[in-house]
Amino acid sequence: MLVYFGAILLSTVFSITSIGMLMPFFKLIFLGEKLADEKSSSPLMQWINERMAHVVSTTGGNMMQLLFYICGFMLLSIVLKNLFLYLAYYILNPLKNKVVTQLRADMYSKVLQLPIGYFTEQRKGDLMSRITNDIAEVEQSVVGTLEGWIRDPMQIIINLAVLFFISFKLTLFLLIMLPVMGLIIGRISRSLKKQSLEAAELQGQGVSVLDETLGGLRVIKAFTAEAALRSRFFGINNQLLHTKNAMGYRRDLASPLSETLGILVFCAVLLVGGALVINDKTLDGAALIGYLGLFYNIINPAKALSTSFYNMQKGSAAIVRIEEVLNTSNLIEDKPEARPMAAFAHSISFKQVGFAYNDVEILQGINLTVPKGKTVALVGSSGAGKSTLADLVPRFHDVSQGQVLIDGVNIKDYQLETVRQQMGIVTQEPILFNDTIRNNIALGMPHATDEQVEAAARVANAHHFIVKKEQGYHTNIGDRGSKLSGGERQRLTIARAVLKNPPILILDEATSSLDTESEQLVQEAINNVMHNRTTLVIAHRLSTIRHADDIVVLQKGQIVEQGNHEQLMAVQGVYAKLVQIQGIK
Questions:
Q1: What is the DSSP-derived secondary structure letter of residue 223?
Q2: 437: number of Cβ within 10 Å
Q3: How many domains does the chain have?
Q4: Measured distance CA(182)–CA(308) in Å, rounded
Q5: Confidence of residue 356 (pLDDT cuts 50, 70, 90)
Q6: Which domain covers residue 287, as residue numbers?
Q7: Which of 70, 85, 100 is the last residue of a domain?
Q8: Would you say the pTM of this structure is higher than 0.85?
C-alpha cells in the first residue's frame, strides 16, 4: 500500500506538471520576444517568466528551441505519469484479488465452524447467496473502487494546492462551490444502501427457492405444483427487478449529475477567473488557461469519487450481510485448557442432561451410561429426542443442563476434534459428495491406501456392486450420490465409517428408508461394523435392535423405560406396545 501510495503521488505530480506546461506554452505564444519585459503579480507566473526569459537569452533568442523544450517536457511528464499509474495498478490488483479471495475463504471456514443448530434457523439458499452474490458485490462495488478512494482524493487535494498557489481568490471561490456538489450527491445516494440490502435479501430468497426446486423436482412434478413454485419464484424475481431498477436509477444518476455539476462550477470559474483577468488584473490570461486545465483535472476524479460513493453505499449492504455470518459467535468451541482425547477407555455417561433450543425443552433429566463394547438402542416416537441425545456425544450441540462424560471426563474438557476422531456416524439420509466412490469412502482419511478402501467396502457389503461399475472405485456418483440406489448409497456411508475404524459408532436410523432387500444387505454391513465397537443406535424398526445390550425408550425428552428386549417385553409398557404395533414376534 505504501508503494502504491507513492506511485499514485508521483503519477499525480507528473499529471499536474504536464498540464502546468500549458502556462509557459501560452506565454511563449502570446508574448514571444516580450517575455523578458513581462511582469506578473503571481509569484509562480513571475518565476515562469524569468526561467523562460533566461532560456531565450542563453539560446540567442531562439523561440523554437524553447517551444521544443516545453513540448518535450510535457511529453516526458505524460509518459512518467502513465508509467507510475500502471505501476500503481500493478501493485494494487493482486491486493484487491487477495482481499476477495480471503473474504470468500473466511466465509467458507466460518460455515464449517458454525454449530449444526445455526443452520436450522438459516435458509441454505440465503447462505449460498451471501458467499456468492454478496461477495461478488463487494468485489465489484467496494474492492473494485478501492484505488479510487486513494487516488481520486489525492489528485483533488494536490491539484487544489497548486490552484491555491496560482490564484488564492479563485480557489477560495471554488472551495465554496465543491461542498454544495457533495451535499447534492450525498442526499441522492442516501437510500441506496437500504435498497441494496433489500435486493441482497431477495436474491437470497430466490436462491433458496431454486435450491428447494432442484432438490424436490420429483415431488413438484408428482403433485403438479409447478404453477405454485413458478408463482413463488416469479414473485421474488419481480420484486428484485423493481428494487434493482430503483437502485439503477440512483446509481446511474451519479455520473451525469456529477459531470453537470462539474461543468456548472467550471462555467462559474470561467466567469470569476475572467473577471480577475479583465478587471482585477491579479491573474493573466496564460495563468487562467493553466488554472482551467488543472481544474478540469479535478472534475474526472470528483466524478469517479461520486460514482465510487454510490457503489460503496451499494456494496456496504453486502458487507453487512457477510459480517452477520462472520461475526456469529460459535457456541461450540474448545476451552483454552482443553486436552486431547487419546483413546476411548470405558464408558459414555449422561448425568442429569437437559437440552433446550429456542426456549423449547427437548431433553430433561437424562441419566444413561453406555459401556465400552456395548450396543445401546434409543427408541421412541418421532420428536421424542432420540437424535438430539445422540448429537450430544459428538458435540453437534452442547447440553443446557448436566454433563456428558467420556471416561469420566466432561466432554467439554476435551479438544473437539479429538473427540470426533473417536467416532463414526451413519445417518438416516446418506450424505455423499459429487466425487468418486473411492474419495467418498476415504472422506476424512485421504491417505488411505486402495487396499484399505477396498477392505472397508467389503465389510460394508459394497465391494461387489462397486466393481460392477464401469470405472469401479473411480466412478463418479453424481450430486449427492444420485447415480446410486438408496441401499448402495447407505453402504458407502457405512464403508466410510469402517475405514475410519472408530471405537464409538452412532447409527441414526440407518435402514429406515430402504426396501427389504437393501435393508438386509445394509443390516448385515451394520452388524459387521458394530462388532467389538461401542454403538449408539437410533431405530424406528425395532426388529433391527432386538439384540441390543440395552434399549432406552424415550418419550417427550425423558427416559421412560430401559432394559434389554426380553425385560421390556415382560414389563408390557411403551416398548411392548411399539413392538406390537410393528407386528414383531
A1: T
A2: 27
A3: 2
A4: 13
A5: confident
A6: 110-331
A7: 85
A8: no
